[in-house]
Specification:
heterodimer, A: about 180 residues, alpha+beta, five-stranded antiparallel beta sheet, 5 helices, 9 strands, about 40% strand, elongated, B: about 600 residues, alpha/beta, six-stranded parallel beta sheet
Chain lengths: ~180, ~600
């Protein structure tokens, strides 16, 4: 921007800089192609998808609940919310991140291969994180861990030197505390 | 007779194809545009003996979609298209995207191969739903005839409510043959809970009204949303403009919502808009955007867009508010409904504009007006394209006239020099910028208004993209007038090459144009040619009198540029006027050259 230009009243540069993660819970009509429609919206407009979970949650109403973790500046996140709301198949959109009553959980299955003291240490760490052992062989464990995404990140970080070989994560699920429903 | 038996007796059993026809009639459809093919033959069979529906056979499916857009835009009713599977559907895609961008309600019914063949790469199979998902407001694949009545009626609801748009219904051939119970528009139970907000928030409306009343330099920036909100909204816009005393400008799509004859009218804004409109947008202190979406052709350089103003944005689409430009007050609602509420608040609170400030504002605007931004160098030997539009306007003034356009220089000159006093009289491809829109759109408009004068203001390049629809016009006795500003160039491409690419005119000259007069005659229409300014008026009068499709070959100067212009990367107050456009290339920054 050259100095000769009149300054904008909007501090655009500042606004565009700050990116944050956001989790949206979206209740959609469960019909063929609805997931493609939603994912296509993100692709067409250049939004990121960090994680995505979807399943039918009300068989009678034929509705599915999608939980989508994305990132962007406040302006982009507002656009994402508006674009999601605009879809004909959408019933409700909730920005879980900005909701003080929002609960977020993720489930992970984690395979750790090793022998000797590393196996003992892996079990000890799993115990601290309240991870469940759901499969065991002489060379490996499969742990099941539930919690906030950051907790799973931390767990995998600790397991890496102890023989972590495979991780499977569901992506974030969310719900609101209290009596309110989406 | 038991109650159960009564209900049984009332059920109407129809084939899927018959349901389509019946639903169209129940929805008040009178005209549809289409092209038959293998996968829609059952529906065409159901249409065969149906006197209540007029079917217009186009020559290419793209033509059907644009014709339906023209019909919709000029009537306020949804346009209906019927095409076959595969290429029928893919040919329709351009018009579907055009309708999505310009918020035109369309129902596009596509045939599909039988359900058991879907996914087998069958003859004329394509994934119509997959292809059209990102370019429709909504779309459906009908797998069970039991869902068909509901889907048909729901499609009309979705296409016409909220921000209008195209809806595709893909119907496999076996579903068209299958029998089922037909239900009417009020009997079906919608699956989608689609009820967009139309009434604006009263608190924000009151806040906006107060902000406008306190403004010293207000401006109303209106768009296609006012047209879509119906003729009532255009009336309310006039009333609110009178109350607030604010100048009014409009986007390309919104022309006609505010009368060009009104002294408060500034003309169209944007890249080739009026000098006074763009300067007023730049210098205003309160901007009221009504049914307009801050498109890049309107805003120019975003970080220098109207830097000193507070912005009120009224739009039925919440995602339009704050998308490109930050707004101070966003009001989600129908333009007509919000304007009515705004006027009510204004009167109830007895708001008064600041008369002294407004007088100063108008004094400034008059200075910009005096600059005469649309001025061009006259020519006594050759027809200037601007002059041709001016004469066309003067000689059709006061008549019942509808204008469509193609895309390019002629479109901008039409927007600059043709003046509209009423909504729904101006049909153009704004968002997608589809060359070839105007001729089929004129076909659609003339179907809706058989006795009106319908003129497609065209360019020699654009018009050839859908020229074959001339055959449609002849078949249905539609006396459309195709007024070609013929400069033998893709004029806007040539202008940009001159401006941004060092006068390297790469592939923008058509060296073997058809003889448009003979072409008109070959189709069974009338051809007229004008080559000299002195004969122009008589030839235009001749064109108006002909009750047949006419191709008017208006030979204009070849290298005229469209001015004024906000050159890429520049702001509203940096417009280039025709008389100061010396070295255009030097005006454009490197960043500007990368913009479209």
């Amino acid at each position: 921007m050259s100095d000769a230009q009149p300054a904008s009243v909007y501090d655009l540069a500042h606004e565009e800089e700050v990116e944050s993660l956001a989790t949206f819970a979206v209740l959609v009509d469960n019909e063929p192609g609805v997931l493609h429609r939603l994912v296509g919206l993100f692709a067409a407009r250049g939004y990121n998808i960090d994680s995505l979970t979807v399943a039918e949650t009300d068989q009678n109403a034929h509705t599915s609940r999608v939980t989508i973790v994305t990132r962007g500046t406040p302006h982009v996140l507002a656009q994402i919310e508006a674009q999601l709301t605009k879809m004909v198949s959408t019933r409700h959109v909730q920005d879980v991140t900005r909701d003080p009553n929002g609960l977020e959980r993720e489930l992970a299955l984690i395979k750790v291969k090793g022998s000797g003291p590393d196996r003992v240490e892996a079990l000890r760490v799993a115990d601290i994180f309240r991870a469940k052992v759901i499969d065991i062989t002489h060379q490996s464990f499969v742990f099941e861990l539930t919690g906030a995404s950051s907790k799973i990140d931390k767990f995998t970080e600790l397991m890496r030197p102890l023989g972590l070989v495979e991780v499977s994560r569901t992506g974030v699920l969310s719900i609101q505390r209290g009596v309110e429903v989406l | 007779m038991t109650a159960h038996q009564t209900i049984e007796a009332e059920i109407t059993t129809l084939s899927g194809a018959e349901m389509v026809v019946r639903a169209l009639i129940d929805q008040g459809v009178e005209v549809l545009f289409g092209y038959p093919g293998g996968a829609v033959l059952p529906i065409y069979d159901a249409l065969f003996a149906e006197p209540r529906l007029k079917h217009v056979l186009v020559r290419h499916e793209q033509g059907a979609t644009h014709a339906a857009e023209g019909y919709a835009r000029s009537t306020g009713k949804p346009g209906v298209v019927l095409v076959t599977s595969g290429p029928g559907a893919t040919n329709a895609v351009t018009g579907i995207v055009d309708a999505l961008m310009d918020s035109i309600p369309l129902i596009v019914i596509t045939g599909q191969v039988a359900t058991h063949l879907i996914g087998t790469d069958a003859f004329q199979e394509c994934d119509t739903i997959g292809i059209t998902r990102p370019c429709t407001k909504h779309n459906y694949l009908v797998k069970d005839v039991a869902d068909l009545p509901r889907i048909l009626h729901e499609a009309f609801h979705i296409a016409t409510s909220g921000r209008p748009g195209p809806v595709v219904i893909d119907i496999p051939k076996d579903v068209q043959f299958a029998k089922g119970a037909y239900l009417g528009p009020t009997e079906v139970k919608h699956v989608h809970n689609y009820a967009p907000r139309t009434k604006g928030d009263p608190g924000r409306i009151a806040e906006a009204a107060a902000m406008i009343a306190n403004a010293r330099r207000p401006i109303l920036y209106t768009g296609g949303g006012v047209i879509n909100a119906g003729p009532g909204a255009a009336k309310l816009l006039r009333e609110f403009a009178a109350l607030s005393g604010a100048p009014v400008t409009s986007t390309l799509m919104g022309l006609g919502a505010f009368p060009a004859a009104d002294p408060q009218w500034l003309g169209m804004l944007g890249m080739h808009g009026a000098y006074e409109a763009n300067h007023a947008m730049h210098d205003c202190d309160v901007m009221v955007a009504i049914g307009a979406r801050f498109d890049d052709r309107v805003t120019g350089r975003l970080d220098a867009f109207s830097p000193g103003s507070r912005k009120i944005h009224i739009d039925i689409d919440a995602s339009s508010i704050g998308k490109n430009v930050r707004t101070d007050i966003g009001i989600v609602g129908d333009a007509g409904s919000v304007l009515a509420d705004m006027i009510a608040v204004w009167k109830q609170k007895n708001l008064k504009p600041d008369k002294a400030a407004l007088a100063d504002w108008w004094k400034q605007i008059d200075l910009w007006r005096a600059r005469n931004g649309f001025a061009y160098a006259p020519d006594s030997k050759l027809i200037k394209p601007q002059y041709a539009i001016q004469r066309l306007y003067e000689l059709t003034k006061g008549q019942d006239v509808y204008i469509t356009t193609e895309v390019g220089q002629h479109q901008m000159w039409a927007a600059q020099f043709f003046r509209f006093e009423e909504p729904n009289r101006w049909m153009t491809s704004g968002g997608l910028g589809t060359m070839g829109y105007g001729l089929p759109a004129a076909v659609g408009v003339q179907m809706a208004h058989p006795d009106s004068l319908v003129i497609d203001i065209a360019g020699d390049a654009s018009v050839q993209m859908t020229m074959q629809e001339m055959s449609t016009a002849v078949q249905y006795d539609l006396p459309i007038k195709i007024f070609i500003l013929n400069n033998e160039w893709m004029g806007m491409v040539r202008q940009w090459q001159q401006l941004l690419h060092g006068e390297r005119y790469s592939h923008s000259y058509s060296s073997s144009l058809p003889d448009f007069v003979k072409l008109a005659e070959a189709y069974g229409g009338v051809g007229i040619r004008a080559e000299h300014p002195d004969e122009l008026d008589d030839k235009i009068r001749e064109m108006i009198c002909v009750r047949k499709p006419v191709i008017f070959d208006c030979r204009v100067t070849k290298d005229e540029n469209c001015f004024p212009m906000i050159v890429s990367g520049k702001a509203h107050n940096e417009m280039t006027l025709a008389d100061e456009a010396g070295d255009l290339g030097a005006l454009v920054s490197d960043a500007g050259k990368r913009l479209v």
